[in-house]
Amino acid sequence: MAKEVLQTHYRLFCNRTIPDAISAVKHNELGMPWITVSPSWRNLRKVCNYHLFSAKVLDANMNIRHDKIQDLLSDVRKSAQASEAVGIGKAAFKTALNLLSTTFFSMDLTDPTSDIVREFRDTVWHIVEEAGNQTWPTFFLCLRFFTLKAVGAVRPSIFARSWTWSALSSTKGCNRVLLKRMIY
Q1: SS3 assignment, position 135
Q2: Would you list the domain boundaries of the chain?
Q3: pLDDT score at 2
């Protein structure tokens, strides 16, 4: 499905409106979700097509996907035995995050007891929160000159904290680069 999105529906996902929080720290120049159609964007797209979504890579990762689905089913069974409702959205998000983190970083980012996981979750939450904050100039371009920078003052500390994640994969240079690309 991801390969189909990159090959046939890419026009829907490129050249989107970029929130001020993203452009304030120059993520719109590097991150695949925000970069405009350009040679850099085409190179990132090729990397995804050939190294992430090729049939060979997807087949090699089949056991990881199978294990994560088994984890999901185990969680559902535990909830059923305890007569608790299953939050479908939360369970699906946990499974997707677990699959991606295991594939890219070789670690489980859904372990609630891990300090590293808790810090990662908090960092991602703050990044999403900041990126989602809209300012008046987003809607009225004539006000862009008068933008207050108070929102931007919080951003650098949040985004700088994300650089600590390179320590997670310091032994794997490729994973470190991928991690920086995903966060930045």
Answers
A1: coil
A2: 2-60+111-183, 61-106
A3: 59
